[in-house]
């Protein structure tokens, strides 16, 4: 490694070490390979270079927009930093050949398949160039999910912000696709499905049944990402579930947000079941209750918060009145959410856990009146099964609704 690269590694470690709160997932394979990640900031280059160098891999090359090479100073800096200029808006064969040469020489290439930065933090529709290059070069692709990088250096900002934290989630590598347009399109969707799994975002082009409703809820916040990771963990096997709960804790670490506290509390409560140390179990349980209670007090109209707290209260001994507390909480949720159908499923769960099946069935009927586009198919199916369980009959079909 040259003197300049050694100096750059020292600068990267000093600059990034204090900002990255953790790296989870698989270690990168041996070079050559392609790294692709969600692109929200110019600081993505720095974080990915730091991660690769810390794993003993060569300094990567980056495909960067040609506008960054317009001025002599910017061009010198970007070329020394590993940049390869790409003319956007069409197929740049010179950049393609340069990228293929990097891989042929045993190097590592960073390529953002979205083509540009996302201004709201949400995954954008990918381009097929990644699949074409991986197929022709015959190298694997490593999907990486980055959290908080856009908070360190947002779009339009010139200097990194202090006291912002970054999390890095690494997915397992994908083998190169076969040649052809259809195979390339299917490969791109698989790559972005893994990035979506690392970031907790499920845009419509990856999985329409998981796509959120338009509006402010579409923002790719850490709390929303943690919520998706926790929900996936509840449906996963034991080993995978523990990893997903850890990711949710990592994503929300250092975030001052009531919704993030709720998801962190849910994940912490489940982590108690993955350890045999009684002191660790007690520590996880106390942390979970503290975070959830804080969320309940600050989010009085959030059905999920009250449902989680009611479930905790239900576990109290009978002489402490846990069932009565849970029932009272279910009533409070029902009163505060009469106009909010999105939380009807959580409200029904509160009533079911409180031993009030008739009210639970009423809220489930309300939930099943939703348009399937406004909620994912798994939740709708879960609502049907719960309603059938309460009534002791068959699962209602979509036509019956």
UniProtKB/TrEMBL annotation:
InterPro entries: Plipid/glycerol_acylTrfase. Residues 33-149 form the Phospholipid/glycerol acyltransferase domain. One of its GO terms (biological process) is phosphatidic acid biosynthetic process. It comes from the Bacteria. GO terms for molecular function: 1-acylglycerol-3-phosphate O-acyltransferase activity. Keywords: Acyltransferase, Transferase. SMART domains: PlsC. This is Lysophospholipid acyltransferase family protein. It comes from Sinomonas puerhi. The lineage of its organism: Bacteria, Bacillati, Actinomycetota, Actinomycetes, Micrococcales.
């Amino acid at each position: 490694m040259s003197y300049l690269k050694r100096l750059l590694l020292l600068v990267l470690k000093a600059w990034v070490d204090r900002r990255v709160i953790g790296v989870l997932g698989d270690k990168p394979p041996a070079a050559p390979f392609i790294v692709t990640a969600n692109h929200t900031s110019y600081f993505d280059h720095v974080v990915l270079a730091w991660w690769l160098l810390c794993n003993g891999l060569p300094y990567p090359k980056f495909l960067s927009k040609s506008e960054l090479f317009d001025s002599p100073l910017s061009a010198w800096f970007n070329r020394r930093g590993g940049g390869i200029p790409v003319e956007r808006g069409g197929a740049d064969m010179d950049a393609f050949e340069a990228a293929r040469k990097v891989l042929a020489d045993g190097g590592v290439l960073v390529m953002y398949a979205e083509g540009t930065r996302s201004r709201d933090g949400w995954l954008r529709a990918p381009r097929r160039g990644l699949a074409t290059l991986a197929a022709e070069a015959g190298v694997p692709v490593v999907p990486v999910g980055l959290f908080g990088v856009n908070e360190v250096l947002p779009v339009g900002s010139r200097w990194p912000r202090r006291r912002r934290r970054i999390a890095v989630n690494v997915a397992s590598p994908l083998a190169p696709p076969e040649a052809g347009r259809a195979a390339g399109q299917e490969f791109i969707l698989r790559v972005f499905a893994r990035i979506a799994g690392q970031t907790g975002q499920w845009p419509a082009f990856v999985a329409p049944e998981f796509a959120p409703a338009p509006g402010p809820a579409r923002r790719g916040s850490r709390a929303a990402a943690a919520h998706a990771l926790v929900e996936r963990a509840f449906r996963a096997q034991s080993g995978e579930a523990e990893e997903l709960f850890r990711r949710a804790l990592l994503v929300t670490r250092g975030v001052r947000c009531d919704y993030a506290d709720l998801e962190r509390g849910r994940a912490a409560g489940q982590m108690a079941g993955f350890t045999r140390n009684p002191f660790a179990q007690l520590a996880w349980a106390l942390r979970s209750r503290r975070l959830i209670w804080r969320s309940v007090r600050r989010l009085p109209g959030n059905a999920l918060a009250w449902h989680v707290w009611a479930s905790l209260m239900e576990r109290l001994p009978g002489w402490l009145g846990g069932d009565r507390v849970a029932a009272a909480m279910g009533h409070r949720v029902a009163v505060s959410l009469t106009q909010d159908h999105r939380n009807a499923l959580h409200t029904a769960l509160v009533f079911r856990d409180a031993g009030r099946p008739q009210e639970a069935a009423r809220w489930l009927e309300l939930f099943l009146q939703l348009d399937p586009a406004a909620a994912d198919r798994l939740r709708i199916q879960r609502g049907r099964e719960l309603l059938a369980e309460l009534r002791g009959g068959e699962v209602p079909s979509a036509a019956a609704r």
